[in-house]
Amino acid sequence: MATSPLPTASPTSSEAAPYARRWWALGVLALSLVLIGLDNTILNVALPTLVREVEATNSQLQWIIDSYVLVFAGLLLTAGSLGDRFGRKGALNFGLSVFLAGALASAFADTANQLIATRALMGIGGAFIMPSTLSILTNMFPPHERGRAIGVWAGMAGVGIPLGPLLGGYLLEHFHWSSIFYVNVPIILAALALGQWLLPTSRDPGAPRVDVPGAVLSMAGLSALIYGIIEAPLHGWTSGPTLAALGAGVAFLAAFGWWETRTREPMLDMRFFANPRFSAANASITLVFFAMFGSLLSLTQYLQFILGYTPFEAGIRMLPMALGLLVGGPLSARLDERLGSKVVVTAGLVVVATGLLMLSRLDTESGYIGVVGALFVMATGMGLSMAPSTEAVMGAIPRSKAGVGSAMNDTTRQVGGALGVAIIGSIMASAYRSDITSATAGLPAEAASAATDSLGAALHIAAGLGAGGDALATAARIAFVDAMEMGLTAGALVALGGAVVAAVFLPATGVDAGEDFAEPARGRRG
């Protein structure tokens, strides 16, 4: 294949005066980001309620969550590309409107299957919201301010995640379960109204044609890949359905990569990956979210089943995570200016690993004091590493391609989070099952099977046995914290691996894409 320089934005896009209301507009983008983070976790605390209210089975509960994730991840690249082509502000408004429609439809749902469908609709909206926020930001701020703006963006992108269980727990204690969807309404209406006034309009000045084959292949590949990752803990990593889904995902994505090198106007120029700044930063983001979502999987259960907090009380005790993200995100920009992204991202991932190792040392007697410090350390490290990694990704591509660059950044987050939940969840499930089996020997087969599947089921069965269930409850709690130690240690090792990747491959400093890449000539490449 013939090589040609990487594309860049036109000179006018980089030389134009900065948008005057950019810092106010950043608040609108932050509001939209909190919405996405909140929705990722607020539903989790409502799952037991949905079993009672809409008679959802375990499989339906899984799909109420996964339908959103699958559609969201599968559409990201396409949504980002469409935003570049037709306008990023319009893409954001479209996403917010679709998300609002999905939230209202979810609130009125009567059955689990309806919720699965309406959550998928929310996933469509989310796929347009997330990349639009970062691409608008990239085009609003000049290079010397972009790092600080992305620091705020990264902090707010994570804040909604720990706020979800807190707000969800409060709403479920005081209102109908549908309130977890109604809470989206005022946020969306505020974002739409303020955005109409504050947000600028931008798009790719080259107005490329829509890459339909690329869109189809990317959606098929990402959806199949995420589906395989999600289903792996249920069916097994070497089962036929898992291997088929993962194989299909890899095949479709390989076909996508091949097509993007051949088409005249690609959705995602594959030559971006030749830039170590772009590739290493995306890898770092993937591993940060692997650690974040994998740790949340075990920590929420620890707070409720080991320490005995209600969902709302557990949510309150997750707030140090939000504080750490708010501290680490903006701080990373200042450190990046002085030390460079290589040092800051590497150090941030080492701090993440340290926090995970601190959490892995918790046991049944640790109490909350053992959680709060470790949680703050881990979240601060995430804030430190996410913002400069994101800035590195966006600085490595031309502004004209900010939408698809943002979508690539968001896709790595989704893949990393899904892998973290699946892999750390599989490690924990295997270790828990191995430790608890002997304690269930005297139980009926159905009860024994349920107790070995989850800590919550084991404690429920133990409560039904009265005083005779104390031994089972104790054994289940010990088995869980031992399994959590193994899972979080694995997460820490992954974070340290990310630190090595950043230290070796991420350049010490970066330049804006407009300074070092030239616009390629139009025409078929090959």
CATH fold naming of the largest domain = Growth Hormone, Chain: A
Tell me, what's the shape? globular
- Stretches where pLDDT is under 50 for at least 5 consecutive residues are 1-15, 511-526
Q: Distance N terminus to C terminus?
A: 4 Å
Please, could you describe this protein's structure?
The chain is mainly α. The protein has 2 domains: 11-200 and 267-443 and 469-516, MFS general substrate transporter like domains (Growth Hormone, Chain: A); 212-266. It is built from 21 helices and no strands. The protein has helices at residues 11-15, 22-42, 47-53, 58-86, 88-107, 112-140, 143-174, 179-182, 184-198, 212-235, 240-262, 276-306, 311-316, 319-339, 341-360, 369-395, 402-436, 445-453, 455-464, 470-505, 513-516.
Q: Which short descriptors sum up this protein?
A:
21 helices; mainly alpha; 526 residues
